[in-house]
Design goal:
Blueprint lengths: L2 H19 L9 E5 L4 H12 L7 E4 L6 H18 L6 E7 L6 H9 L7 E7 L2 H6 L17 H12 L10 H5 L3 H17 L6 E2 L1 H9 L6
Parallel strand pairs: 1-2, 1-3, 3-4
Antiparallel strand pairs: 4-5
Helix pairs in contact: 3-4, 8-9
Length: about 220
Amino acid sequence: MGSDDLFHKRKAKSARDSARRQPVRASYDKVLIVCEGAKTEPLYFKELVDHYEIHSANVTISGDCGSDPVSVVKHGIQLYDKEKLAGSGPFDKVYCVFDRDAHPNYLQAQVDLSNIRKKGVFYAIKSIPCFEYWLLLHFIYKTAPFMAVGNVSSGAAALRELKKYWPDYEKAGVGSFSYTLSKLEYAKANAKRALREAERNHTDNPSTNIHELVDYLQNIKNGR
């Protein structure tokens, strides 16, 4: 056998092996979730994805972008462009998950998202003041605003409130989704109700639309 034939056969085998190693995604949406938290939010959504047995090749969750809302959006755009160039097909949806808390460029992140030309792909998933407000809604419906007082940020105030109902809660802890799963539909209803009330009162403190992402993931296999 000539060296050229051997080379081409090895190259073809390598390509086949590489193709076998690539995870084959299911027929439903391919989704990117970019979170400002390195652990708290990514762990929550990874647990959710595992619970609903969503194919791992269909959902990419990243918290490798720092805690700055604008950085979350930039990272989402970078990962979207990278995936598109990789030839494996672009993400159908990109969800940028971030808090308001004390971030000075929270509003700029929303402007950046609204300026993205790819409409219907990029979404802002916001919590005011922070992700812990979403968790709090699993235990109680509460719409009194969380305010920064002295050295205590609005996010820290929401965390204190959550600990009244969940004393053992720790940020970046494993099991947040499973611990609150039995109360998930109650939290979704509370989040929708709180969002409507915030809009009526021309405020966003407190509010969250995490329920929109949760509902989407719950129904992703149905194409909804």
